[in-house]
């Protein structure tokens, strides 16, 4: 119990004034004092829900479906010896530990209304640590392009590590204040998710001290920033596209009033699309406008807000002067592409996917999503696609993400590790399989899933796991 959770009196007075008539303050306080139920989302780029449920049963994990996300579950698991984050399934990218209510914005973004076409270019404007980015990428099935932006440079590394673990190849990372996108990439995206920075009023069940320094003044200050961000998001959206605005806070100033600011700014170009049909119990949290305003006692999760917004007409965007400098990549020639493709097929049995393009930077070979190309001359990205190889005089040295993002199960050079060998692998150590030896690179499997790329050196496999993925204790 978080009985000592910080809930300032002024905050409680505000909550009392905005609670729907079917909810009461006593239940709100009691909900805030209960620890969160743990929840996960199955990563369908790596496995299926059916396969994962079967594996969970073998491990003794109890799963309860989350109504608003077909890939999400509340989970009960014994973590006394091994935390969920250190299980083989998590380290192989089969699931993401994600708070249940935070799955709602992406579900709203992909909610089908009529005969909508698949989303080809998507912007996640405030992406770290990556729960919603990886959820979007899975629903895009690695097609098109997903621009994942994070303002905090220190959090970009965490974002990239999660993208890599989940087998994602269609992402381009950027590191900007989200307010730049309206001017730099106007009307570029089919859909935009703005999970805005906020005062975090809904997160006290996860962090009892989240509200310790809360003040009405800070709420109003953050709301001002959110209004600038939502304008930029709307400007970056194509006509006909969908913007989802969400926060993990409860105040009307940071939620409804931000959406109404957009409507007042752009008039008939903006319409709000109701979320009543997102899941069966949505009516318990629906607002007059059709937004979801979720209090923690309603679904026994974090407090959250979600709005779905449609763009009906072009709007003015800020004029910017672009000085991008020289683009450090060059597109690979047809001859080089053919050579790389043939060598990859011969050495690992892997084919390059459609909707991708090879680019070169000195001796490095990168695979970019083709849909990213129109943006390459418009914005500076910190990382694009995946690095697949380093060229040397005898050919190409394949990289870790070739295995984790491109292997489909039809690869030819593979090795299956035992549980003990897999533990050693995730601890960054080389493997010495008994009575086995080979040559060249080899795709490493454990329990039927790819966990990396190694290279035979005599009778051992040299470990190619990226340093940020190495763990050295409490492993499965």
Layout of secondary structure:
Blueprint: H1 9-18, H2 25-32, E1 39-42, H3 49-59, E2 62-65, E3 72-76, H4 88-91, E4 95-97, H5 104-109, E5 121-124, H6 131-140, E6 145-149, H7 153-165, E7 171-174, H8 181-184, E8 189-195, H9 216-236, E9 237-247, H10 256-266, E10 270-273, E11 292-294, H11 296-299, E12 304-311, E13 330-331, H12 334-348, E14 356-361, E15 364-369, E16 383-384, E17 386-392, E18 395-398, H13 400-406, E19 414-416, H14 419-426, E20 441-446, E21 449-457, E22 460-463
Parallel strand pairs: 5-6, 5-8, 6-7, 8-9, 19-20
Antiparallel strand pairs: 1-3, 1-4, 2-3, 7-16, 9-12, 10-12, 11-12, 13-14, 14-15, 15-17, 17-18, 20-21, 21-22
Helix fraction by DSSP (H/I, runs of at least 4): 25-40%
Per DSSP E runs of 2 or more residues, the count of β-strands stands at 22
Helices, by number, come to: 14
Report the structural category. Answer: alpha+beta
CA(first)-CA(last) distance:
28 Å
- The gyration radius over C-alpha positions equals 23 Å
Strand content: 15-25%
What do the pLDDT scores average to?
Answer: 94
Q: Using the alpha-carbon principal axes, give the shape.
A: globular
**Main beta sheet:** 9 strands, mixed
Unreliable spans: none
